[in-house]
Design goal:
Blueprint: H1 8-14, H2 23-33, E1 37-43, E2 51-55, H3 61-71, E3 86-88, H4 89-92, H5 98-108, E4 115-122, E5 128-135, H6 142-179, E6 182-187, E7 193-196, H7 198-206, E8 210-212, E9 218-220, H8 223-238, E10 245-251, E11 254-261, E12 275-281, H9 286-297, H10 301-311, H11 316-323, H12 327-341, H13 346-355
Antiparallel strand pairs: 1-2, 1-5, 3-4, 4-5, 6-7, 6-12, 8-9, 10-11, 11-12
Helix pairs in contact: 1-2, 9-10, 10-11, 10-12, 10-13, 11-12
């Protein structure tokens, strides 16, 4: 038996990328089997989530209400099915089981379903799936077709589970990057953006230092920085072992980037990545941060400005010069700052600021 006569295998492998999931596969299976319904259900081991997909006519409202009121969920003993074996409805509904007989007579027959063929497959991580066909009659070839489909469904399910896990990891990583005001993007040899984290787009929107230019090119506002970036990327295109370079883009609000050669592999469309750019920037200006320090620790504005300078690791003499203070005045301020913030020195001041809500503000 050729499974791909009707494109079944192609649609099964592509179904994980569709919305709704596996729509074409179920429609093809329904047509191939000439049945009323074709369904695919996922029930993970913990049973906290259920995905149920089907192709076929809509369930009439009165039967939908009956199902919800009387059965709550499909009562067929799917969990008792042996993995890889195809079951008929008569095997799933023992004659002495009153509830299942009621489900068959009151609900399934109302849908025009007199028989079912169903197979259970289990993905290697333990996630179960059930593929079923239902209708007035089921052809004799149904068992053979579902048996042949089972290993292919198992492989497709394994790919689906792996894809969902990677999506979750990517989402969690992106959220962590966002909280750290951090992001990355990859560039081809012409400085065109091939891929990037969502946080980079937010950085573009919050400042005018960098932007996505024509042809998706990463374009710094400063012509000098544009030339420097272009030269760096050309160097990395010729030498993947070249030394990465860190560049400060702005002091207020603070924003840095690290440009490094791309040493991984990528399937990105439009070109091969030769460089990866790591961006880290603050959402708030220095003035905003000083106001937040005033609110958090009860500092005076003049103390908050010095505290923010010192919180960046700047020595007190340099911080005093940056703010136009004498060193003696800065030292007097620092004593008051340490007392109000509960710090025993500059190192602890830095730790307190970095571990406060300012880190995610």
């Amino acid at each position: 038996m050729r499974l791909d006569d009707s494109g079944l295998l192609v649609s099964l492998n592509e179904g994980m990328f569709q919305q709704p999931l596996w729509h074409d596969f179920l429609e093809r299976l329904r047509s191939r089997m000439q049945v009323r319904y074709a369904s695919l259900a996922f029930r993970p081991i913990d049973e906290k989530s259920i995905v149920e997909l089907y192709a076929g006519p809509a369930i009439p409202p009165h039967l939908d209400r009956l199902f919800a009121e009387k059965f709550a969920r499909d009562p067929l003993p799917y969990r008792d099915m042996r993995e890889g074996r195809v079951y008929s409805l008569s095997e799933l509904v023992p004659p002495d089981n009153v509830e299942l007989q009621s489900y068959r007579n009151d609900f399934l027959r109302g849908l025009g379903v007199e028989d079912i063929r169903s197979v259970r497959v289990t993905e290697s991580s333990g996630v179960d799936a059930w593929l079923s066909c239902a209708g007035p009659r089921i052809s004799s070839s149904a068992t053979a077709l579902l048996t042949a489909l089972a290993p292919h469904l198992r492989a497709a399910l394994r790919g689906f589970v792996a894809l969902e896990r990677e999506k979750l990891r990517s989402t969690l990583t992106s959220e962590a990057f966002g909280r750290l005001n951090f992001g990355w993007l990859t560039l081809d040899a012409q400085c065109r953006i091939l891929d990037m984290t969502a946080h980079v787009e937010q950085l573009f929107q919050r400042n005018s230092i960098l932007r996505r230019g024509r042809y998706d090119r990463l374009t710094p506002t400063s012509p000098g920085l544009d030339r420097e970036l272009t030269a760096l990327v050309k160097t990395f295109a010729q030498d993947a072992e070249a030394r990465p370079r860190a560049i400060n883009l702005s002091r207020d609000p603070w924003m840095d980037m690290l440009v490094a050669p791309f040493r991984g592999q990528s399937m990105a469309a439009g070109g091969a990545p030769v460089a990866i750019v790591y961006l880290s920037g603050d959402r708030s200006s220095q003035a905003d941060r000083c106001e937040q320090l005033v609110d958090l620790f009860g500092l005076l504005p003049s103390e908050a400005r010095l505290a923010w300078e010192m919180g960046q690791g700047i020595p007190i003499m340099q911080a005093a010069a940056n703010l136009g203070l004498t060193v003696e005045t800065a030292r007097n301020y620092s004593k008051k700052i340490y007392a109000k913030m509960g710090a025993r020195g500059q190192a602890e001041l830095v730790r307190i600021i970095l571990s406060s809500v300012l880190a995610i503000a």
